[in-house]
Amino acid sequence: MKDPLQPLPPVQIWHGLKRAWMLSRLKDKRYRYMWASPPDDEWVSLDCETTGLDVNLDEIITIGAVRIRGNTVMTSERLELTVKPERRKLTAESVKVHRLRQQDVAQGMPIEEALKQLMSFIGSRPLVGYYLEFDLAMINRALVPLIGVKLPQPKIEVSGLYYDYKFQQLPHHQQGLTHIDLRFASLMKDLDLPQREAHDAVNDAVMAALAFIKLRQLTHR
Prior knowledge:
The structure is a single chain. The protein is of the alpha/beta class. The chain has a single domain (about 10-220), classed as 2-Layer Sandwich (Nucleotidyltransferase, domain 5), CATH 3.30.420. About 40% of the residues lie in helices and about 15% in strands. It is built from eight helices and five strands; from the N terminus they run H-E-E-E-H-H-H-E-H-E-H-H-H. Strands 3-2-1-4-5 form a five-stranded mixed beta sheet, with helices on both faces. Strand 4 (about 125-130), helix 5 (about 130-145) and strand 5 form a beta-alpha-beta unit. Helix 6 (about 160-170) packs parallel to helix 8. The longest helix has 19 residues, at about 200-220. The relative contact order is 0.17.
């Protein structure tokens, strides 16, 4: 049995302080549920499509998310939102990438409404994604003015899981010397997973979820 008088590890202390600080900054207490204990063996895979790649100036135009339960991607439990950008117009280049025109996003919902739906969909589940740091930077830039804090859930980067897995497969003398291709298409092909049409938020979320499940299976054998 653990000694109740034994000091907590520094990491646990830091996480506890961060949790308390974030909750103190939360403007709308209706969203306290995001700090609850997550459902067992559940995650949410998340992806955003944007007007561009500048996290300070560009805007979200679509959000896709899908729940993962155990080793199953719950495609029936997905979120697909179109968001109307407030300041940035779609460029010809972004139309080619996302196949969304200005008139397609003009009827989208305000980002504030999209974020409310997203928070409700995620709950307290950990987040999974490919290049998740960018998606969260875009989301949090709009979320902080709304509720005062960033999304608090644990984050899992698929490319990081893949890198660790491939690194461990290398002979010791090649570790650190061999290039590991982290491109999404290359990762999916190497894991022998089906690929959907890219640059679609739901498709990308589903593919990231499949990669996450496969990597968990490979690393827990």
